[in-house]
Every structure is written in structure tokens, then in C-alpha cells.
Amino acid sequence: GVAEFVFGALLEYFREISRAKMQAKAGNYSEAGFTGTEIKEKTFGVIGLGRIGARVADLASQGFGAHVLYWSKNRKKITGVKRSELNTLLKNADIISLHMALNPETNGFLNAKRIAMIKSSAVVINTAPMELINTSALEKRLKKKDLTIILDHSDELEPTTIIQLSKYPNCILYPPIGYTTQEATSL
User: Fold this and answer.
1) Which of 131, 175, 180, 127 is nearest to 149 (CA)?
2) Strand pairing partners for 31?
3) What's the Cα-to-Cα distance from 79 to each of 4, 45, 60, 96, rounded to whole Å?
């Protein structure tokens, strides 16, 4: 469910699906003003290649035709996916999907230095615990308006942090719905 949500959120953002539905509901069926972005041929970075990260990498590569790089503590073998140094991934990926468990080693993993390395114009999606990201450093980068971040665990943020981040149009906040499929919640 989480892996599928990653692509649902990305497609909603890249193709302006919500805006298109609202426009059509208002009776305007013109495509004028819509210019989507495709995932195909983009460099797609996956940080953390556990069960969910591996599924995201597979969908990005096999389903969407992206060039997939991954960084993980352990080497993995997935068709169409290439291991990368973390700094290389951050500097080159057009899309970054974060999939790490929270532990003392990963707390604040996306720190100021790493956030600054992320390629200008990249889209970052986090469906992992919010504690992996230094939100003060993230806010500084959001102010530059050269990065978009999609967050699935906004419920883990302090209310003041949510207010701060939600004022940036390049920060998209979702409640934790990535895992809330009938299949995932019935296991």
C-alpha cells in the first residue's frame, strides 16, 4: 500500500490531478494551462531498500521506466536498479523516495548538509517517520523554492511545525494514509 501511495502522490503532483478534477467539476473541460511531467526517463532515487523501498524501486524501474538509483546500508539485487553512493543519489535524482526505519542511526538522517545537496527542482517524498528529516533545514530549503517535498506522516509533526511547513506551496502534507489500504490493515 505504501509503495502504491508513493506513485499516487507523485502522479497527483506531476499531473495536477486535483486541480483538473476541480476544474472539470466547475464545468471547464479545457486542457489549457496543464503541463504534466512524466516519471519515465527521470532519475529516481530510493533511500532504504527494505520491503517497501524495494517495491518502490521495482515500480519506478519496471512500471514507469525511470532510471533507478538506490542507497541502502546493505547491497541488494533488483533488476533495473543500480546502487549509488548517497551523495551521488542526492545530487542527481529528479525524484527521491525515503524508506528507512527510525533508529538512533537514522534520526535526522536528512540533515542540513544532505538537504542542501539535493538537486535543484527535485521532488522528495517521505513515507517514513518524520524524525528522519531535520525540519528546520528543510524549511530553509523550501524558502529557496527549488525543491518540492511530499510528506505522508504529518501527524508526527508538532502543530507549530505543521503551520510553518504548510505555508510553503512546495511542501505537500498528507495524513498518514500510505498504509491505509484494506489489504494492508487486514493483515
Assistant:
1) 127
2) none
3) 19, 15, 11, 19
